[in-house]
Write a structure and sequence with these properties.
This protein is an alpha/beta fold. It has 14 helices and 23 strands. The chain has 3 domains: 89 residues, NAD(P)-binding Rossmann-like Domain (Rossmann fold), CATH 3.40.50; 215 residues, Mur-like, catalytic domain (UDP-N-acetylmuramoyl-L-alanine:D-glutamate ligase, 3-Layer(aba) Sandwich), CATH 3.40.1190; 144 residues, Protein-Tyrosine Phosphatase, Chain A (Alpha-Beta Complex). The protein has a 10-stranded mixed beta sheet, with helices on both faces. α5 crosses α9, α8 packs antiparallel against α9 and α10 packs parallel to α11. The protein is globular and about 60 Å long. The chain starts with a strand and ends in a 17-residue tail after the last helix.
Length: 485
């Protein structure tokens, strides 16, 4: 069959394109402003796509048109699909019908940590020789791709709570028929599609209610909102957390104890249902990654992986691209890339960077790009999060026209509040200004942590190139701060 994907360069859509190609289907697609890593993956797979939306892309009448969730009415290609009465559907529906039916689906959900946890589950199962299929919203370093199709009974999928398509406003994760469901945590996000926290929590309650009674729910016990939901589960709950409460009866079933973090990684002891399983080590840093690891261990065990394979898989896991990924070092300055965009994720990422690069000066560069990151109600939380850096630089809003004055994040005001609390901070709306400021304000040994859920104009390569060339002369720019207006 010929599948045509509108919005093919989105992480999930590009991965679906790869899965369909692996099944022997013909795949074409279109997008706009395509950038790595998905553009590179599509090119490597030899999948034909247009870097524009155009009715001409539908030549040959594809059998099925898959409409990405970023595509809305008014898109010229979508309008052509509707006018010609072509068969169309969503990515989530295709994934469910073509790849998940009849399998042991490990669906990884939660506000934070989905990509790392799903990648880790897949790698732990690989270490156990279970050869899982997977579809993940990022690229695990150990696999080098975001998807794989095998004959295994087990399929690991990142289960996103964002909406499915313009014609299906329910979360994608509702389509994913979980047998083992992982929910790391629940904290209000995506204010653009969920009217309030109640609606957001309902999305996860319904996801939990999809798990069969013979399945397993793996749930983060350190998340109060999630913990309160677990009573609705018909499946047994494998809870996980760090430490525990004073009451032994309320301890998580999977616990991390004696956590020690350093530049080489993290070590901790694992206790399950009161029994000490032993000490483990991993390259990932930060308490949030300890929680991700516990979730992955519990899920892998539920899918049949033995403890020795789980421990070895954790030790050898190399991480995920764009999750605390060191992009390079130039002029003695280390440049790190991370996908963090929710204020809680920004704070956790900065804390992890502190643990990993202990004793080094930390410069945070944050692009308010996601809907959440550009909304005013999160402004105070971003101030708290960015205050964990030695120096914070905030870029201009990605799409400010989507908001009015009452709903839009105000970067100059955010910078002013940071400075009022004694935090060194600057607002630089343009990419060139950010690069210049970082080059002038850094010294050998510093770490620059760039946080954005998009391409950010190729800032990583541009910054490394600028740092590697002749550095700006001392005094070229004041070590104080430019005006934030």
């Amino acid at each position: 069959m010929h599948y045509h994907l509108i919005g093919i360069a989105g992480t999930a859509m590009a991965s679906l394109a790869g899965l369909l190609r692996a099944r022997g289907e013909r795949v074409t697609g279109s997008d706009q402003g395509v950038y790595p890593p998905m553009s590179l993956m599509l090119d490597e797979l030899g999948i034909e796509y247009a870097d524009r939306y155009d009715p001409a892309n539908l030549a040959g009448d594809p059998d099925v048109v898959v409409v990405g969730n970023a595509i809305s009415r008014g898109n010229p290609e979508l309008e052509e699909v509707l006018d010609r009465r072509l068969r169309y559907t969503s990515a989530a529906a295709v994934i469910k019908e073509r790849f998940l039916a009849g399998r042991h689906v490990v669906a990884v959900a939660g506000t934070h940590g989905k990509t790392t946890t799903a990648s880790l589950v897949a790698w732990l199962l690989e270490a156990a020789a279970l050869e899982p299929s997977f579809l993940i919203g990022g690229i695990p370093e150990d696999f080098g791709v975001s998807f794989r199709l095998t004959d295994s009974e087990v399929f690991v999928i990142e289960a996103d709570e964002y909406d499915t398509a313009y014609f299906d406003k329910g979360p994608k994760m509702w389509h994913y028929v979980p047998w083992t469901a992982v929910v790391n945590n629940v904290e209000f996000d995506h204010a653009d599609i969920f009217r309030d926290e109640i609606a957001y929590r309902f999305a996860f309650e319904r996801f939990i209610n999809l798990v069969p009674r013979a399945g397993t729910l793996v749930a983060g016990w350190d998340s109060p909102a999630l913990r309160a939901m677990c009573g609705i589960s018909r499946a047994p709950v494998q809870s996980f957390g760090i430490g525990g409460t004073e009451s032994a009866s309320s301890h998580p079933r999977w616990r991390a104890e004696r956590v020690r973090c350093g530049e080489a990684g993290t070590r901790f002891a694992v206790r399950q249902d009161g029994e000490m399983l032993g000490e483990v080590e991993m390259r990932l840093a930060g308490d949030f990654n300890v929680l991700n690891a516990l979730a992955a261990m519990a899920a892998a065990a539920a899918a049949g992986a033995p403890w020795d394979a789980i421990r070895e898989g954790l030790r050898t896991f190399r991480g995920v691209r764009r999750r605390m990924e060191v992009r390079g070092e130039a002029g003695g300055v280390t440049v790190v890339d991370d996908f963090a965009h929710h204020p809680t994720a920004v704070a956790a990422t900065l804390e992890a960077a502190r643990q990993r690069f202990r004793g080094r000066r930390l410069i945070a560069v944050f692009e308010p790009r996601s809907y959440t990151a550009q909304r005013r109600e999160f402004q105070e939380a971003y101030g708290t999060a960015l205050g964990k850096a030695d120096h914070a630089i905030v870029a201009g809003l990605f799409r400010p026209e989507r908001y009015d004055e009452a709903t839009r994040l105000d970067p100059p005001e955010l910078i002013a509040s940071l400075r009022a609390r004694g935090v060194d901070a600057d607002y630089e709306p343009a990419l060139d200004g950010i690069v210049r400021r970082v080059v002038c304000r850094t010294a050998p040994g510093d770490v620059v942590l760039i946080m954005s859920n998009g391409g950010f104009g190729g800032i990583h390569e541009r910054l490394l190139a600028a740092l590697g060339s002749e550095r700006a002369a001392p005094g070229a720019e004041s070590h104080g701060s430019a005006a934030v207006g």
